[in-house]
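Cross-check.
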Amino acid sequence: MKTSLIKFLSVAACFASLFFFITASASATPPAPKIPDWFESQAGFDNALEFGAIANVSCELKSLLFNITGRVECVLNDAAKPLAPLAPVNFTLKKGESASFKFPLHFDKETHSRPLVVKIFFDFPKKEMLAYVSAMNIDGEEKNALLEKIKSASDLYEITHSLDFIVTKNESFSRLDCGVYDNYLKNGFLIKSFDFKNMELPAVLSEIKRYEEFIATVRKTPELKTYLATGMDLVSSEDKYLNYLYAAAYNYYISGDYGRAGFFFDALLDKAVREAQNVDTAEIFVNASVNKAVMLYEQGKKKEFMELAEKLMEFCIKRSDPRLRYIYYNIANYHRLASDVRAAETNYRKALALKPAFTACSNEIKKMEEKNSNDK
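Predicted model, tokenized:
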């Protein structure tokens, strides 16, 4: 009976899928005709952003089909100051020509997610575009639709490039996918702050308990254990559980309860991360391990700090993880506090090699060089 029911449901699902496919195809709307690409443009920062330094915003243009004219403008917020008045730059490009326009800016304020905007205004080459499309070998109906679209187009064509970035006194970013470690401690160490949707600690602990009871129940039943291994709909729950553990560990750590923090760091790093089946645990492993290592140092467990830091270094090197710079930075601080200037500078420079705009490192090197000069 059960086998027959399963077969019936499978067949019904197939017919439902086929019916959906047929009805969806019949009601599909053809895509709107696309005007041929007649230029290429891009905008970005020429060099790494750094607090108090100068960087260029660059705009690249290339004419692909016709001679084109227009202007380029850079629109600022108060996060950067121009070195000269930001007048629009007019351009004229012949077919196939390229041009680059630069706007030198001084980044003298800390800022987070307040984009700069590069705007490009073109005199739309309507006459040339109509002639080009008329000569194209495409379906007559599509060609007519495209010609009508060109005729109704505005004479002024505008495209906008929004450049988001972060500038801080310690580290700046023009690639926001590289992660931001934002909690620099008084002793120089760097940890990753954590805020789980502004939940209070009792609610976090309650969620941890609820998930662990659920997992314990599932793993007692062979059928459910197999289901768990398929990763069907448990991914989000498993990911939340890891983050709840991290949130508890971080909350206890910053409140100074190192005993409870250590318990949750260990529960996360020595058990939950190893047992996770459906989510990538690399990011949370590195972030939580960095915090645990700094906590160990603060507890006077300097040997344990270095063992964990070296383990993290090897892990990040193997994975080409960009957060390797933070490991080098913390190791450098360890040596700086131990008055091992050479080892400290070596590791600061390793971090700088990975991120030239890692201002915290260059500042420490500058302090050490000044001290060395004064001592002489």
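The longest strand covers residues 53-63. The two ends are 92 Å apart (CA to CA). Passed to J.P. for a second look.
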